[in-house]
Specification:
Layout: H1 8-22, H2 25-39, E1 48-49, E2 52-53, H3 57-61, H4 64-82, H5 91-103, H6 110-126, H7 132-150
Antiparallel strand pairs: 1-2
Length: about 160
């Protein structure tokens, strides 16, 4: 897993834009997941803690267990930003993360909604400063992360 064609200028754009987000990751993570649940409301049903199913996104978004999940997601993004020049060091971790997501019922198609939600959160955080160049850099980084996670996905008929 290289930086999937990310230039040093794009590394700078990603790092600079992440600084503001990383100052309050939970707040921004909630924006990300609120948007995700707007795009794919059925995903709420994947989150169950202590056998409790959530009937509404708001209920899920206020759960302490779910907020811990949000923190973890933001830490994964932070790790990708931290290791931009050396993304391959996260490959095994991300492949295992992909496997775990598949095991709990996440569909590979949902990753596009997650990517859209990530970009939405970044745009809400930065406003007009989140320009086309920053968007493209983040799109490339997210694509590299999804590619690594999908390596852990068990595909029927796939030969190992």
């Amino acid at each position: 897993m290289e930086s999937d064609g990310l230039s040093s200028a794009e590394h700078g754009l990603i790092r600079e834009s992440w600084q503001k987000v990383s100052a309050s990751p939970l707040e921004h993570g909630i924006v990300l997941f609120t948007r995700l649940f707007d795009l794919e409301p059925a995903l709420v049903s994947l989150f169950q803690y202590n056998c409790k199913k959530f009937s509404a996104p708001e209920e899920c978004l206020s759960s302490p267990e779910f907020l811990e999940h949000v923190r973890k997601v933001m830490l994964v993004i932070d790790a990708a930003v931290t290791h931009l020049e050396n993304l391959h060091c996260l490959e095994e971790y991300l492949a295992n993360l992909g496997k775990k997501h598949q095991a709990v019922g996440v569909k590979a198609e949902s990753f596009s909604a997650v990517g859209e939600s990530l970009l939405y959160m970044l745009e809400k955080c930065h406003g007009p400063a989140f320009n086309l160049n920053v968007r493209e850099a983040w799109t490339k980084l997210y694509g590299a992360v999804v590619k690594a996670m999908s390596r852990g996905w068990d595909v029927p008929g796939k030969l190992e």
